Amino acid sequence: MPCIPILPTRPPRTWPCVIAALGLLLSAPSFAAPESPGGTGDELRDRTTEPPAPEPAASAAATPDKSYVIPALQIIGFDFLLNRYNRRFSGTSDYDVSRASIRRNLRGPWVVDNDPFDINQFAHPYQGSLYHGAARASGLSYWEAAGYTFAGSVGWEILGEQTPPSYNDQIASGIAGSFLGEPLFRMAHLVLNGPGGLSRPWREAIAAGISPSLGFTRLTFGSRFEGAFVDNDPVYYSRLRLGVARAAQDNLGSSRDLERDEAVIDFALDYGLPGKDGYTYRRPFDYFSFHAAASSANGVETLATRGLLFGTDYAIGDNVRGLWGLYGSYDYLAPQIFNLSTTALSLGTTGQWWASERLALQGTVLAGLGYSAASTLRRTTEDRDYHYGMAPRLSLALRLIAGDRASVDLQAQKYFLGSIANRAAGRDDITRVDTAFNWRLHKRHAVGVKYVWSHRDANYPGVGDRTQTLGTVGLYYTLLGADGFGAVEWREPSAH
Questions:
Q1: pLDDT tens digits, 73-107
Q2: Do 254 and 240 contact (CB within 8 A), yes or no?
Q3: How far apart are CA 126 and CA 19, in angstroms?
Q4: What spatial distance separates the first Cα and last Cα of the chain, rounded to whole Å?
Q5: CA nearest 2: which of 105, 98, 85?
Q6: pTM across the whole model
Q7: 3-state class of 214 per DSSP?
Q8: Closest CA to 15 of 91, 125, 177, 92
Q9: Residue 399: burial class (beta carbons within 10 Å; 0-12, 13-18, 19+)
Q10: Cα(235)–Cα(270) distance, integer angstroms
């Protein structure tokens, strides 16, 4: 399937520099955040008491500008150039599109293809995110942009290649593309409009790196769509980790080798955390979580997003604030021994509980169903070991925050890939647990230790039992966002 022009044939091998730039640059808006004389209190300040940021001048117009034509032309043009590029450099005839191939794709059945995992499950969602970003940058709403993403993917499957259209690619580009594209669009918007000492040209360049579609639209049309999206000043937590990790536990199974030592860069952002007075969740992804990690051993190891599609907030007493509803998520996991990707819908909740004056617990719990894929990395045999299917998934994310001094993070995911009705026909159960302890040294600088455990237990006809395990221990320097460990303060001063 497609080799996106801005990505080489195997994108995860060459993306660490891009993910590193994303983490560093997205943190940049808060580099110049003012420090209070007392030092530590400002890093955990109450953002809920700050006056709302002024909206861009263009938002004062009665109807912000929007266009349905511009993103359609951008998507068509992008797909045309992508086809030309792939036809010239891919070395295959898959992109020799003709009238006959178009008629055949329109009439013929959709299939499941087994192209390389990183192309199907990484490059396709990123391609879809470009469609989504083009529509959002032209002033369209999330759901309108999601429609453009889905249609753009259909167009590529039928018109962009002569091979039969693939419904696994349609899910990856047409649905996961929106689940990835919306966080990228909003993070780029944060860079453009957030605090900090960056000059305008730098902001524009950084935003374009995060969301190229937004950057292209702004370069072409300037501030025409400036007031179409207002973020309502969300509370967000961000952090960037740089460190080294070593394999402490391994069972390679059918993988052939392992790099025991690796350098790691890890970025995370939680956007729209519950607890801020006046902030609402009426639009999809008014709350979302984004996580990306890359290593010297395996390129991009994690790319994951989850966002609230439909839901509302709630309060329990004076010490609990949260939100609940239907979430959309996209996960790409690639520890050195296996791959996993899933596009899912889940029911769940995100909240924060003030357990004491200085101790806060944040968390998200999700249970849902997704279309997933799994395969072995660095195989010792020639079998594909590549499975698609509907997969129930469970997800838990917790952060225990001890004032402005320390935090403990736990993230756990469980995927049950295989036949839901008849598990005996084949199964692929995957577990991922990520734990970290962080200690703040000074202002926004912290250190931490982290343990990541990845386990796969599979059995399929013709393949047999596959058990693979990898546990890594890492030491990290952590650059915290301006809000320290991310606790949201809504309590009256007299309450604590």
A1: 999 999 999 999 999 988 888 899 999 999 999 99
A2: no
A3: 13
A4: 57
A5: 85
A6: 0.86
A7: helix
A8: 125
A9: buried
A10: 8
